[in-house]
Amino acid sequence: MSDWVFDSLICFLHSPVWNAALNTFIEEKSLVFDPNIEINISDPQYLEIHNEYKNLVDYMLGSFMEELNITPEEFELACIEGKNLLTKNDPSNDNGSFSFHKGLFQQIWAANDMRTFVKLMVQRNIEIQLQALDLIERQRNSQDVDDIETQEQEDIAEIEESVKVEVNHQEEKQEDESLNRLNLFFEKEKVDKEDLSMRQAYLRQQRDKILQLKKQVRARQLDDTTMKERPKSAKAAQKIIRGENIEPDEASIQLRKILAKKLRDEVVDSSQN
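Request: output the structure for the sequence above.
Response:
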């Protein structure tokens, strides 16, 4: 099996197809992952969302495998060859670690590890709420109707551009600092309960507006060109964006488990040593 399979996986995880499906789900489901509370990973609510996420990852990986017309066993061999390729191209990487791609694969590893999944969801919840807070603050600074309309157009353009350049990796960010900024929106003026509820509702409204716009941009990314390049996975992503039920097959589940084992051996375990 040539190295092109492993390279194709990297391209797939960078593609608008994978991005549209995974990020849409993560953003829409992240709201219940409150950064201000200690999340019980055995809570049925979170376990159900995690199971949905695993199905999504399996379904998308299955569409990738079907598109390349390979079996899970061939994919496993490609992962091994991919490790060897990293060592060959980077002699300093003498153990063939996937560390260069660690962030890229985090979304897949989250399907196998609940704690990683919770961290991913909490982080994305904070990011979306901060984007919503930025919208609110910019609207407050607008002086008249023309300013507001201009600002809204600029906000839309900014969100659309952020979706177009999205890369599927989770960077370590200063979550404490971001969370403090969000909490100040509710606490700095010691707001009463009624005003607090209004602020929460308004933040949620802006958050929903951002998510809807991102969803529309991602749907447009799955255009005729994408459909021609990745017809099976593009259709799979479209089903996910539309909120349709998906059922991964056994081969897809096996594919994710193979990749998860490689991730555990080459990324997770090595990072803990």
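Residues 86-91, 93-100, 167-172 have pLDDT under 50 and may be disordered.
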